[in-house]
Amino acid sequence: MLNYTETTTISTIVSVMPLSPSQCRPLVTDHASSVVSYAIGPINPTQITTLHAHLSTGDECSLFIPTQIPSSMLTHPVFKEGYEWGYLESHAEEEEWSVPKLVNELYQNLADLWRSKQDPDFYPWTLGFLLGELANIVEWDKPLALTGLAHFCFLLPLFTQEHPVDWPRYEPYHPAYLHDHAVKAYRARVRCYREQGKSYDEAQRLALHVDM
Fold first, then answer.
1. Is beta strand 48-54 parallel, antiparallel or unpaired with respect to 60-66?
2. pLDDT tens digits for range 18-27
3. What's the chain look like in SS3?
4. For residue 47, what are the contacts with CB-CB under 8 A and spacing of at least 6?
């Protein structure tokens, strides 16, 4: 298992006016360079905080929140519904998860989200659901969850931001292409470790790019 350092904060949920997707766009100042250099691996701990969220069951869950998510999103009532559903209904531990399966699911959910952008509530609900599902995964496989969270942060600006002015002309700017490119590069690293005699699970861990 990999070792990580956590950054923890406590937030309180309050009600606010609903937000549209255009109002919830994350701020990324070095988007072009970060996308070009991206490789699948766990998120840098300095890029997340922890939200101790209350559930309707009376329990709590700990959501790992990317710092690029506006604080106003965390107080959205539909976001709360989404993370509770994702945390309680995902049954993540019962599924046979792998890194490619998780990042592919994240891509598909965000693609579905953007196709449904005419519904303003679907945006905060889906983000909440994905973060709730990852909170479930954290409880039994933290490296996998942090890897999913990094891919979530990689994909979200691709769906919500315009083509950066400093984007390299030779690089296609499209979520599907960039997601597939990252997955193929990861699978190639896994194959290299498998050829060295590593088990599939060990190869998956060794193939992760660790940005610490």
1. antiparallel
2. 333 333 333 3
3. CCCCCCCCCCCCCCCCCCCCHHHHCCCCCCHHHHHHCCCCCCCCHHHEEEEEEECCCCCEEEEEEECCCCHHHHCCHHHHHHHHHHHHHCCHHHCCCCHHHHHHHHHHHHHHHHHCCCCCCHHHHHHHHHHHHHHHHHCCCHHHHHHHHHHHHHHHHHHHCCCCCCCCCCCCCCHHHHHHHHHHHHHHHHHHHHHCCCCHHHHHHHCCCCCC
4. 66, 67, 68, 153
- pLDDT tens digit string along 143-164? 999 999 999 999 988 888 777 7
In 3D space, the residue among 43, 150, 136, 66 whose CA is nearest the CA of residue 106 turns out to be: 150
99, 40 in Cβ contact below 8 A? yes
CA–CA gap between residue 52 and residue 8 (Å, rounded): 9
